[in-house]
Design brief:
It is built from 4 helices and 8 strands, in the order βαβαββαβαβββ. It is of the alpha/beta class and 166 residues long. The protein has a single domain, classed as Dihydrofolate Reductase, subunit A. An 8-stranded mixed beta sheet has the order 4-3-2-5-1-6-8-7. A hairpin with a 5-residue loop joins strand 7 and strand 8. It is globular.
Length: 166
């Protein structure tokens, strides 16, 4: 199963100014790319803080929300709260017939997957903005080498960089 990290970041490498910030600053073209790609993949894995900033079920794809808070539950088939490990989540998805999964943040959950070397591809939209301080793609120290597979200029001055993790 391929795990594709799909994120937007500022030109200075920030994904948000703080953990509660809404992801409403990336522009229409990036949003379109995100919706198309995640619908094509069919399933998104995210941390609870990222889900709280989205605060709704995104239609047309499954959301797996990682949390250790057992009081968080859902009756909707497309929204699952789980305290399972990254490996268990991927195994479950594979058993459900998914060929790949979109990992969509935030910094903490991205690091959980990177630490376990479970990320295969990274798609980053570079948005022409600067935040200065804030959260990065990861909140841990890594030394990972990437292969650049594709670059695409989309609207709003954004560039999508597609990497394969070596
Ligand atoms: N620019 C972008 O593309 C983009 C994309 C996504 C998010 N973001 C931004 O990122 C920010 C949120 O990122 P974040 O790093 O603060 O939080 P996060 O990664 O979204 O969520 C962290 C939470 O995940 C849960 N968690 C962490 N490790 C876990 C594990 N091993 N097992 C189960 N649950 C675990 C914990 O939830 P509990 O406390 O509930 O246990 C933890 O508080 C927001 O500002 C959002 O806007 C930006």
């Amino acid at each position: 199963m391929d795990v594709i990290l799909i994120m937007a970041m500022t030109a200075d490498g920030k994904i948000a100014r703080n953990s509660m910030e809404l992801i409403d600053w990336t522009g229409k073209a990036d949003k379109k790319y995100f919706v198309e790609k995640t619908k094509e993949i069919g399933v998104m894995i995210m941390g609870s803080k990222t889900f709280d900033t989205i605060a709704k079920i995104l239609p047309g794809r499954k959301s797996i929300v990682m949390t250790r808070d057992k009081t968080r539950t859902s009756n909707h088939p497309d929204l699952v709260f789980t305290d399972k490990s990254a490996e268990e989540i991927l195994m479950d998805l594979e058993n459900q017939g998914f060929a790949s999964a979109a990992l969509i943040g935030g910094s903490m959950i991205n690091s959980v997957f990177m630490e376990k070397q479970l990320i295969d591809y990274i798609h980053v939209t570079v948005v022409p903005r600067i935040f200065g301080k804030g959260l990065s793609l990861f909140d841990m120290s890594f030394d990972v080498t990437l292969d650049l597979e594709d670059t695409r200029i989309i609207e709003d001055g954004c560039i999508v960089l597609k990497y394969k993790v070596k």
